[in-house]
Write a structure and sequence with these properties.
The protein has 223 residues and is of the alpha+beta class. It has helices at 11-22, 88-93, 169-177, 181-187; strands at 4-7, 35-38, 43-49, 54-61, 75-77, 95-100, 102-109, 112-120, 126-137, 140-151, 162-164, 196-200. A hairpin with a 4-residue loop joins strand 3 and strand 4. The radius of gyration is 17 Å and the shape is globular.
């Protein structure tokens, strides 16, 4: 699963990315950046398509299915996207990109769970494939979202059995505009693991209230 991630960039870098990748010029939202420890239940930056243009805004991380009154799902399995009632409609009609520059997983070693940060080697910002849905929460209509995950390959499996779907740059727009379910699933094939770098970080990150650069700093002598 993916339960924490980072978007450790400033607003100007984010705006430049949104314009370069999606042609979005008017991104003005009330969010603090950089973020080093984004947790479920928080507002995250997402991109959607309205059928004509791409738009960026804030969503709540914790997908609420249409038939639920409050059950929140942070991850959706790639294997059940097109079939499970919770996800099927959003997979067909409400897909999103969730912007990040890294994520955390915890590796079990004996009785310990050791945190690692995983990021791409060749680009700073990337997009998780996501789905979203409107929900009534505390009397307010808000967009809620989940990150899609799949089974990890042989290397990343050493840290955790599942990984979030990180899209190739050329696949990001297609994820929002493609309509064929089989073609959509093909976009979510996991990336070559050699494109990622993982390093162990301090258990400081375990507390979601900790949100500083200390969260992402490598522990010495760890890959």
């Amino acid at each position: 699963m993916c339960g924490r991630f980072t978007i450790a960039v400033n607003k100007e870098d984010l705006k430049e990315h949104l314009y370069r990748q999606f042609g979005i010029e008017d991104f003005e939202v009330d969010i603090f950046l950089p973020r080093y420890n984004v947790a479920p239940g928080e507002k995250i930056i997402a991109v959607i398509s309205d059928g004509k243009n791409f738009r960026a805004g804030l969503m709540r991380w914790g997908f609420v299915p249409s038939f639920s009154s409050g059950f929140e799902i942070i991850n959706a399995r790639r294997e059940t996207l097109s079939e499970k009632p919770s996800f099927k409609n959003s997979f067909r009609n409400k897909r999103c990109l969730i912007l990040a520059d890294g994520y955390y997983e915890w590796k079990k070693e004996g009785k310990q769970k050791l945190p690692y940060r995983i990021a791409l080697k060749d680009r700073k910002l990337f997009s998780f494939a996501g789905i979203w849905n409107w929900a009534e929460l505390s009397g307010e209509r808000v967009p809620t979202c989940a990150i899609i995950t799949c089974e990890a390959g042989s290397e990343l499996r050493k840290i955790h059995g599942r990984v979030p779907i990180v899209l190739e740059q050329e696949a990001e727009r297609l994820w929002l505009t493609q309509q064929n379910p089989e073609a959509l699933l093909a976009l979510t094939e996991p990336l070559d693991e050699s494109k990622f770098h993982a390093h162990r970080v301090s258990t400081f990150v375990n507390n979601s209230r900790n949100d500083s650069e200390e969260c992402i700093l490598p522990i010495e002598n760890e890959r």
